[in-house]
């Protein structure tokens, strides 16, 4: 069973969010929550909210499910739109300020399903 949570045009550059996403990829949900709770980055708070949404989607989709057995299958961070603003400078010039956004997709699934997929992949490679 797999559940997905998405957010589009979240403020913050994709590069900064990827730094935190790399810490929680392929971890259990409880371990990922601990990592995000004790991280000082703003992106950690954003990813924590998305993780909670993905867990709620899994519970809603499967009915009774143990959230302790969920793992983070994938975290995709893509660049979103860039808002362009201008700041006036000396001698009548202007500099562009880029306010970057990112699109985040987080997928959680059961441990049992991912292990079965790994076994299928191992058998197909031989």
Structure description:
There is one protein chain. The protein is an alpha+beta fold. The chain has a single domain, classed as Alpha-Beta Complex (Ribosomal Protein L22, Chain A). It is about 45% helix and about 35% strand. It has 4 helices and 3 strands; from the N terminus they run βαααββα. A 3-stranded antiparallel beta sheet has the order 1-3-2. A hairpin with a 5-residue loop joins β2 and β3. The protein is elongated, with a radius of gyration of 19 Å. The two termini are about 25 Å apart.
How many domain modules?
1
Structural class by secondary-structure content = alpha+beta
| SSE order, one letter for each helix or strand | EHHHEEH
End-to-end Cα distance, whole Å, is 27 Å
Radius of gyration computed on alpha carbons? 19 Å
Gross morphology is elongated
Tell how many strands the DSSP assignment holds.
Answer: 3
Question: For the record, what is the CATH homologous superfamily label?
Answer: Ribosomal protein L22/L17
- CATH C-level: Alpha Beta
- Spatial order of the strands in the main sheet? 1-3-2
The appropriate CATH architecture is Alpha-Beta Complex
């Amino acid at each position: 069973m797999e559940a997905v949570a998405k957010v589009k045009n979240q403020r913050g550059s994709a590069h900064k969010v990827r730094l935190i996403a790399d810490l929680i990829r392929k971890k259990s949900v409880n371990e990922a929550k601990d990592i995000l709770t004790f991280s000082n980055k703003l992106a950690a708070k954003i990813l924590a909210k998305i993780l909670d949404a993905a867990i709620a989607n899994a519970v809603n989709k499967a009915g009774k499910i143990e959230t302790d057995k969920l793992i983070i299958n994938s975290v995709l961070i893509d660049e979103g739109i860039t808002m362009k603003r201008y700041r006036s400078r000396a001698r009548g010039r202007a500099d562009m300020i880029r306010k970057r956004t990112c699109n985040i997709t987080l997928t959680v699934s059961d441990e049992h399903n991912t292990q079965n997929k790994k076994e299928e992949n191992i058998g197909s490679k031989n």
